[in-house]
From TrEMBL:
Bilayer topology annotation: Peripheral membrane protein
Keyword Protease: no
Keyword list, A-Z: Antibiotic resistance, ATP-binding, Cell membrane, Membrane, Nucleotide-binding, Translocase, Transport
One Gene Ontology CC term in the entry: plasma membrane
InterPro entries the record matches: AAA+_ATPase, ABC_transporter-like_ATP-bd, ABC_transporter-like_CS, ABC_transporter_ATP-binding, P-loop_NTPase
Gene Ontology BP, a term: response to antibiotic
Family indicated by similarity: Belongs to the ABC transporter superfamily. Drug exporter-1 (DrugE1) (TC 3.A.1.105) family.
Protein name, per record: ABC-type xenobiotic transporter
Domain named ABC transporter: residues: 7-232
Origin: domain of life: Bacteria
GO MF entries: ABC-type xenobiotic transporter activity; ATP binding; ATP hydrolysis activity
Enzyme Commission numbers on file: 7.6.2.2
Amino acid sequence: MREEPVVQVRKLVKRYGPRTAVDGLDLSVAAGTVTAVLGPNGAGKTTTVEICEGYRRPDAGTVRVLGLDPVAQAAALRPRIGVMLQSGGVYPGARAAEMLRHTAKLHAHPLDTDMLTERLGLGGCGRTPYRRLSGGQQQRLALAMAVVGRPELVFLDEPTAGLDPQARRATWDLVRELRADGVTAVLTTHFMDEAEQLADHVVIIDGGRAVAAGSPEELCRGGAEDTLRFTGRPGLDLAALLTALPAGAAAAETAPGSYRVTGKVGPQMLATVASWCAQHGVMPDRIAVERRTLEDVFLELTGKELRA
Ligand SMILES: Nc1ncnc2c1ncn2[C@@H]1O[C@H](COP(=O)(O)OP(=O)(O)OP(=O)(O)O)[C@@H](O)[C@H]1O
C-alpha cells in the first residue's frame, strides 16, 4: 500500500492585502524523502512553508501535514515536527547550550545535545549568549534546535544561507543522516547545488504556483535539449554532418575548431557524430555531452530577469 504523503497542499492561496503571495499552489511530500522548494525571491516559498508549519493561515485551499490541519490541530502537530526559522523566536541573552538543552527537554527522545553541538561545530560556543554568536553559528544552532527532538518531519528554511563551505557540508551530512533515519525534510534554498546534492524531489515555485516538480534527474532530463561538443579541425562541413543526424538536431562552429551539436543527445547521436568524424578523417580531440543543470532548468522556467 502506498503511504500517504507527509505534506499534502492543494490549491493553496495566501494574500497579503492586495498581493497574492501564493496562488493555487499544489505540493506533495513523500515520507522519508528530502524535498527542496526552489523559487526566485518573493515566489512564495517561505509563506507556503510557514502555512505548513501552522504559523500562517491559508486564505483558500487545503493543507495536511502528517494528516493534520496545521492550524486547527497545531497542538498535536507541533511536537512531531521540527522547524528551523530564518530568524526570531530566540531570547538574545540565552546561552547556546542552554537553549539547545532546554529544547531537548521538551521532547521525549531527544538527540544527544553534546553530539549535536560537536557535529555542527558549535562545541566552543556553548556558553556564548545567542546575540554574540556569529550569523553562521546562529544558523547552525537553529538547525540543531529544529532536529534535536527527533521530529518525524523537519522544515528547513534556507538552512545553509550565509554558511562557510565546511558548515554547509556539515549541514548536508546531517540532513542525509536524518533521511537515513527515516525523517522527512522540506527545505527551501537558493543553492541549486544544494538541491542537487540533497533532494529526492524538487518543486520549483514561481509567482505563488508550482511550475515544475520531479527528481533533479527528471527535471534536468525533461523538455529542452542537451548539448554535445567536440573539437576538430576548423571549417568542417556542418551541412553534411546535419544530414547524418536525426531531424531536429542543430550544429554550429562556436569558435574555430569547436563544434556544438544540440538535439536529442543520446548514444545514437554520439555514435553518429563519432562515425561521421571517422568517415571524414577528423580526430575529435575532445568529445563531451553536457547535460542541463538544475540551474539551467530553473532559469528556463523562472526567467533570467531580476524581479521587482
Ligand atoms: N507579512 C507579509 N506582509 C505582506 N507581504 C508579505 C508578507 N510576507 C511575505 N509577503 C510578500 O509575499 C510574497 C512572497 O513572499 P515569501 O517570503 O513567501 O517569498 P519567498 O519565496 O520565501 O522569497 P525569498 O526567496 O526572498 O525568501 C512577496 O511578494 C512578499 O513581499
